[in-house]
Amino acid sequence: DTEVTQTPKHLVMGMTNKKSLKCEQHMGHRAMYWYKQKAKKPPELMFVYSYEKLSINESVPSRFSPECPNSSLLNLHLHALQPEDSALYLCASSQETSRGGNSYEQYFGPGTRLTVT
Amino acid sequence: DAKTTQPTSMDCAEGRAANLPCNHSTISGNEYVYWYRQIHSQGPQYIIHGLKNNETNEMASLIITEDRKSSTLILPHATLRDTAVYYCIVRVGPGRRALTFGSGTRLQVQP
């Protein structure tokens, strides 16, 4: 199973709402990531989790709150978002340790398309 | 990670080979060349990676020049389903986990 699943596929939320994005993988990967992709732009890294601990936060505003409750799940909690936060949110996972430097491919989910009204 | 330069867009006829170039003139000795692609409205998909030798898998071939300053991704028989944005990414393999995407090349496969 090389699949990363993300729910929901689409989400529309108001600026006062609280919502969560979910990501799941069963490949035994211990590194998980959130990326944000605006229209016609490349994905940009938001967060990296390594062994369920936050290891990288790319200066993301606090209205985005990641959570990794176990090795298979990654959540992104959203609160008080702005319209400019509308984007495709991508989750990815990868092996954490290198096997001779040849196994760092990341597996991406299909993304959640978020619209903030 | 070294910076990469790719053409903004390319066209290819269906059934022909698609050759996508990438320049990475500042690449360091321990940096790998990775290729990912993103089909419209989907998540990026890993294609192939290499350090110095040419590599081939079921999806594509990767040709890296001897000085490692450029590379070419080859899709040997392009199909309409290969229409996507192709990203060339240079990064250290072990120990560096996140991907830094450039602008990529939008490949349009024509029937």
Quick recap:
The complex is a heterodimer of chains A (117) and B (111). By secondary structure, chain A is mainly β.
Detailed description of the structure:
The complex is a heterodimer of chains A (117) and B (111). Chain A has 117 residues and is mostly beta strands. Chain A is built from no helices and 11 strands. In chain A, strands 2, 4, 5, 6, 9, 10 and 11 form a 7-stranded mixed sheet that branches. A 4-stranded antiparallel sheet of chain A has the order 1-3-8-7, with no helix packed on it. Chain A is globular, with a radius of gyration of 14 Å. Chain A starts with a strand and ends with a strand. In chain B, strands 1-9-8-3-4 form a 5-stranded mixed sheet, with no helix packed on it. Chain B has a 4-stranded antiparallel sheet with strand order 2-7-6-5, with no helix packed on it. The termini of chain B are far apart. The chains are: A mainly beta (117), B mainly beta (111). The A-B interface holds A 4, 31, 33, 35, 42-45, 48, 50, 55-56, 88, 90, 92, 94, 96, 98, 101-102, 104-111, 113 and B 32, 34, 38, 41-46, 49, 51, 85, 87, 91, 93-104.
> What does the average pLDDT of chain A come to?
91
- Any idea what the radius of gyration of chain A is? 14 Å
As a percent range, the share of strand residues of chain B is: over 45%
Structural category of chain B: mainly beta
Largest sheet: number of strands, sense, barrel closure of chain A: 7 strands, mixed
Number of strands of chain B: 9
Which structural class do the helices and strands of chain A define?
A: mainly beta
Shape of chain A: globular
The largest chain-to-chain contact, stated as pair and per-chain residue counts, equals: A-B, 29 and 26 residues
Strand content of chain A: over 45%
